[in-house]
Amino acid sequence: MQSSVFVWLMVGVAVLAANLPFINERCLAIVAVQRFSSSKPVFVRLLELLLLYLVVLGLGFFLEAQLGNRFPQGWEFYATTLCLFLVLSFPGFVLRYLVKRRSQHHE
Contact, 18 vs 57, CB < 8 A? Predict the structure, then answer.
């Protein structure tokens, strides 16, 4: 498989994974969270976001190893990719916390 296909695969997986904590009420889209309120707590979403970042990072390392030699990375790489992952999660965050929802009942 060509390297450009791997790059686009990684971008697609990263966008999906970055928005996953904000678009559903299940942890990692699999496990139902006990409902103390109407939605998952913010700290659960942030932990889920960090875990999904690590999964995407691992997938990226795997795909890089499939292409050839895996290059060592410094802390700058991890800081940059984490910030990029957070930027990719912005649409899901906006939909969850910033978009005003219309009330279901009319008075």
Answer: no
pTM given for the model? 0.82
| Amino acid at the residue 82 | L
DSSP annotation of 101 reads P
Q: Which of 9-13, 30-34, 72-76 has the lowest mean pLDDT?
A: 30-34
Q: Where does residue 39 fall: left (phi above 0), alpha (psi -120 to 50 degrees), or beta otherwise? A: beta
Q: Which of 15-24, 29-38, 56-65, 68-77 has the lowest mean pLDDT?
A: 29-38
Neighbours of 29 (CB within 10 A): 14
- The secondary structure element, H or E, covering residue 58 is helix 42-67
Question: CA 65, CA 92: separation in Å to the nearest integer?
Answer: 31
Gap between the Cα atoms of 86 and 104, Å rounded: 31
Do the Cβ atoms of 97 and 41 come closer than 8 Å?
no
Q: Are strands 31-32 and 26-27 parallel, antiparallel or unpaired?
A: antiparallel
